[in-house]
Design a protein that fits this description.
6-stranded parallel β-sheet, alpha/beta, Rossmann fold, 14 helices, globular
Length: about 350
């Protein structure tokens, strides 16, 4: 992978001007043409950089809110559902609503929920409606699915993971992300371009506590328990050399306190960590995201510790992602930032 940074990003104007001015000393017609070209290039490169009226304030964020009609339609669909399911993505915990109000709304609805990305930990580590395992089977059986702040990309089989029999309610701020891969592999029964957290808050106000079939929740919980039992069984297999990663993750999870922020950076190791480690609360999980930007772990850990100095910060590295982050250990030392590392 080759990454090129523009010269005006790397060096200030005066440095570049000095270098360009000394690159041509010709006095003839050719030299004058070259000097004209280089000076013109320099001016174009920094065009507008010194304008006094250049705006420096943040660009206002336009957050769309759901219409009453959309909330009412969704409420009607859920009131008739036998096996409703919620999938939350990272976008759901963005301001202005915030994680606390979203959590209250999800708990009020009582619908089983799968959390992904930054929404992990939203309901704490032991919520009866928070599921982590056997999501594909749950989506196969659900009759109404709300995709809130998530995207039907590779993580959901581009929408193919949804059952053809399910009614999917998609909620997303972005029109493009809202119906991504729709009409190819899936079709939303209701597409709402709005902030998903606000959508759930208004939905909970409209429905109150939904009477979800306890057998549906029990079925999902049984699958959850079986998967976790299997993972713990595999964790007991002690190899002749090296470590059993599942054993490491289970032991780590058993040792974390409620004020811990988990940073996960890697591939397979992080994939396992997402199913085993239980974030203790909202906004206590950071990972490379859908684009798999390995190497962010150390930077995330520094930022997390500086923002929340009283929290323990634990970083789970894969071997490759650790290699990207070795230089940052010097940054940890220089800024006296403490974190715990596992790889």
């Amino acid at each position: 992978v080759f990454v090129e940074l523009p010269i005006d990003v790397l060096y200030p104007f005066q440095v570049i001007k000095k270098e360009i001015a000394g690159s041509s000393t010709g006095k003839g017609i050719v030299g004058k043409v070259v000097n004209w070209y280089l000076n013109n290039y320099l001016q174009n490169l920094f065009a507008g950089a010194f304008d006094q009226d250049f705006p420096t304030h943040p660009v206002p964020v336009d957050v769309p809110f759901p219409s009453k009609a959309d909330v009412s339609t969704a409420a009607e669909m859920l009131s008739k559902a036998k096996k409703p399911l919620i999938i939350l993505g990272s976008q759901s915990v963005l301001p202005p609503v915030g994680a606390d109000k979203l959590r209250a709304a999800i708990e009020s609805l009582g619908i089983p929920v799968y959390l992904g990305g930054m929404s992990r930990g939203l309901l704490g580590k032991a919520s009866p409606i928070n599921m982590k395992q056997a999501r594909r089977e749950a989506l196969r059986d659900a009759d109404v699915v709300i995709l809130g702040g998530g995207v039907a990309d590779f993580r959901l089989g581009y929408g193919r993971t949804f059952s053809k029999k399910s009614k999917v309610i998609a909620v997303n701020r972005s029109k493009e992300q809202l119906c991504k891969n729709a009409k190819l592999f899936w079709n939303p029964a209701l597409a709402v371009q709005a902030d998903s957290a606000q959508f759930f808050v208004e939905l909970a106000q409209s429905l109150g506590t939904l009477k979800v079939d306890p057998q549906w929740v029990s079925t999902l919980r049984e699958r959850e328990t079986e998967k976790e039992k299997n993972a713990r069984s595999q964790a007991q297999n002690i190899p002749d050399e090296h470590l059993n990663p599942l054993k490491v993750l289970h032991d780590l999870d058993d040792s974390l306190d409620d004020n811990t922020i988990i940073v996960a950076d890697g591939g397979d190791f992080v994939g396992s960590a997402a199913y085993i480690l239980r974030p203790r609360g909202p906004l206590r999980w950071l990972d490379p995201g859908a684009f798999g930007t390995l190497g962010v772990g150390a930077g995330f850990a520094i930022g997390a510790k500086l923002c929340r100095p009283d929290s323990d910060v634990v970083v789970v590295f894969g071997d490759g992602s650790l290699g990207y982050s070795l230089i940052e250990f010097d940054t940890f030392v220089r800024h006296k930032v403490s974190a715990v590392f596992h790889w």
